[in-house]
Amino acid sequence: MERRGIGGGREIAVFPFAFQDTSIEGEVGGVDPTETARLSMITREVETRLAARGAEIFDLSGREETIAGLPDPWDCLDCAAPIARSAEARANLTGFVHKVSTLIQSISIIAHDTETDRMLGNASVSIRGNTDEAWRRGVDFILKRGLLGEEAETALNR
After folding, report:
1. Domain ranges in the chain?
2. CA torsion, ordered 45, 121, 72, 84, to nearest 10 deg
């Protein structure tokens, strides 16, 4: 079987997006359940968009405890790879949202080849506004505009 890139028949493990809140609001108010729900929303959005490109999205159910024990993706960009490999996925995507203030957030997505442990690409985008629509637009901007880099995007569009 010919090895293919991310999407277009490639098996991908999409890990739940993580959240890094360094805002005063987060320090004072703690975890906002609305933001927690948005993390799930954008994770599903990425899965939906990749599936529409022909990717087989692996179900990571039953691995929640192991996934929860992973270091944050901003501290360890490829720590999800062994879990993706154990699921027999050829690639994995991790991502996170960094909240700087009520108005300013950034969304980052990182793609790894689990067979070679090589990063295929990464991208970040700043968003303004802490709404469902702003978060969706951030993910959309990265995936539609090829910001993950040439190698990852070539693989995504096969």
Report:
1. 11-156
2. 70
CATH number of 11-156: 3.40.50.10610
Nearest to 58 by CA among 115, 15, 18, 1: 15
Q: pLDDT in tens for each of the 158 residues of the chain?
A: 333 445 445 688 999 999 999 998 878 888 889 999 999 999 999 999 988 888 889 888 889 999 999 999 889 878 898 899 888 888 899 999 999 998 999 999 999 888 888 888 899 999 999 999 999 999 999 988 877 777 676 555 54
Tokens of 40: 């799930």
Whole-model pTM: value is 0.86
